[in-house]
Amino acid sequence: MLHRWVFLLLAWLLPSLPAGAALLAELDTSSPQATVAAFRGEVKRVEALFLAYRAAPSRASEVALTTALSRAGRELFDLRDAPPVTRLKHGAMSFGLLADILNRLPELDPATPPVDPQSTRWAIPGTEIRLVRLTEGSNARSWVFSGETMGRLPEFRAAVANLPPLRPVAIDDWAEAQRSFAGPLLAGLPIASLPGPLHWDLLGSPAWKVLLTFLVLLTAVLLGLLWLRVVLRVTKGTVAWRRHLGMLTVAFVFVVLLELAYRFITWNIVLVGGLSDTGLLVTNFAIYLAAALAAWSACWLVAEAIIAAPSFPARVYDANLLRLLARVCSLLAAATIIVLGANEAGVPALGLLAGVSIGGLALALAAQATVENLLGGISIFADRPFRVGDTIAFGTARGVVVSIGPRSSQIRAPDGSLTSIPNADLAKVHVTNLSARDRWIFQHALPVPREMPATRIAALVEEIRRRVAAEPLVEQGPGWPRVHVAEIGKANIAIQISAQILTADEARFLATQQALILDALRAVEDAQRDGTPAPAG
C-alpha cells in the first residue's frame, strides 16, 4: 500500500510536459518578419491560456500554459547559452518581457525589404532587438531572437515601461503577472493579504516566494538528514552490505525529497528573476549529487552482497577483486553522474575534463601512472599469483600481502614494516608465492671426521636415513628421503641429507628441520663415541 501512496503523491506534485498535448501548426521562422509575426500570434494564444488558468487554477491548465511557453521559448529564442536546467524559465521570462515590449511598438511595415539570404543577423527597425539565423541543431536555418537580445530585454522593457500598449491586450504587464504567478497548490491561498514586507522584491521575486523556497529546501534536507541519522544508528556495527544498503536508501530518500522540492518550487512557487537561476541550479545539482551517492552505494552493495552470500564461490571470485571493482565502478559511476549534473547546470565538465592541446596532453601524462597501476592491480587479480594473506617473495624481499588496492599493494615484511608497492611494478617482477607451496625442501650437508672407518660411515648413513624417514612429516617415496656421502675433503667427509617436508606452514617446517638436524648430530656423536650409533630419540 505504501508504494501506491508514493506514486499518487508523485503524480500530484510532479507534473510533466505532455509529449504531444495538442497538434498545433508549426511556427513559421523562415524569416525575421515571419518569426516576429509568429511571436505575436503566440502571445495571443498564451494570453488566453493564462486567463483560463487565472479563472480556474488547476494542474491541467498550468501544464497547458507551461507547454505553450515552453514551445515559444524553444522555437523562437536562442537558448543555446542558457543552462539546460533553466532554459524553460529563461524562455518563459523572455517571452513575457518581449511581449510587453512588442505590445508597445508598432507593427512591422509590410513594405520592409526582405532580408538578404546570406545575412545571419537582423534587427527590428528602430530598435536593438536582434534576430539571428541558426546554423546548426534541430532549428537550423530558423530565425530566432538572439541570446544577446534576451540578456538586454529587462533594459528594453524598462525603456518602454511608461508607454501604453498600442493595441488591445488582455495582459498589459507580463513582468508583474509572472512575478505574482503561483501554482495551483498556492493559487487559492490569500497571498495578496500577506504583510507588506513579504511582497518586497528580492532579485526579481517576491520575498514570500524566496522565503517559501528556502523553507521547502530546508525541510527536504532536514528530513533527509533525519533518515541518515536513523540509518547510521540501525546499521552501526552490522555487516558491510547492510551499511551500503542503508546508504542506498539514504541516497534514494534525498533524491525523492529534493526532486519533490524541485518540482514544487518550479510548478507552484515559480521563482522569477536572477534568484530563480540560483535556486534551480543548486537544487538540480543537489539531486545529481544524491544520485551519485546512490550509484556509489549500489556498486558497493552488489559487491558486498555477493561476498556475504553463503554460496559465495571464493575460488572463482576473489573478495578483494570484487571490492577493487566496486571501488573503481563506484567512482566512475558517481563521477559520470556528477559530470552530467554539471553539464545540465551549464558547466562544460566534459570539455574541462578533456582539456585542449597541451592541457589535454598534460592530463593524459599525469593519469598514465595511475592507469598503469590500476591495470596492474586488475592483472594481479586476473592472474591470481597471490592473494591477501599470502606470503610472497619478490626480488630480494619477502613479506605478507596485507591489501591489494587500485594503485598499490601493501606488503608487511618479517620485521613488521609495511611497504606500499605500485601494482605496475609488482606485476612486472618475478613473484614467488610461498603460501602456495605444499612442501618444504630439507637439504643439509653433515660433516664427519675423515679418519672415521668406512664401515662406520656406512652404518651412520643408514642410521641417519632411518631417523629422517621416521619423522611423520617427511615424504616416503622412491628416492626419498636421500642420505649419502657427497664429498671427501681434507679433514671431513660430507654426508648430504635431502628430504621433503610435507607442510605448507613455515613454523612447522622449521621445527621439523631443527629436530632432524639435532637427531643427525646425535647420531654422529654416538658413532664417534663407541662406533655404534644410538637409537633415535
Write the layout of secondary structure elements.
Elements (H helix, E strand, L loop, with lengths): L1 H12 L18 H24 L3 H18 L10 H16 L18 E3 L6 E4 L9 E3 L1 H13 L14 H6 L4 H4 L13 E2 L2 E2 H29 L4 H30 L4 H35 L10 H26 L4 H6 L2 H27 L7 E4 L2 E8 L3 E5 L5 E5 H6 L2 E3 L6 E10 L4 H16 L12 E7 L3 E10 L4 H25 L7
Helix pairs in contact: 2-3, 3-4, 4-5, 8-9, 9-10, 10-11, 15-16
Describe the structure.
With 537 residues, this protein is of the alpha+beta class. It has 4 domains: 27-181, no CATH class; 205-354, no CATH class; 382-435, SH3 type barrels (Roll), CATH 2.30.30.60; 438-530, Alpha-Beta Plaits (2-Layer Sandwich), CATH 3.30.70. Helix content is 55%, strand content 12%. The longest helix is centred in the middle third of the chain and has 35 residues, at 274-308. It is elongated. Residues 1-21, 355-367 and 532-537 have low confidence and may be disordered.
Helix content: 40-55%
Strand order of the largest sheet: 9-8-7-6-10
Instruction: Estimate what percentage of residues fall within beta strands.
Output: 5-15%
Largest sheet: 5 strands, antiparallel
Give the count of structural domains. 4
Number of helices: 16
Structural class: alpha+beta
Note the overall shape: elongated
Average pLDDT metric: 81
> Separation of termini?
79 Å
| Rg calc | 41 Å
User: Could you give the order of the helices and strands?
Assistant: HHHHEEEHHHEEHHHHHHEEEEHEEHEEH
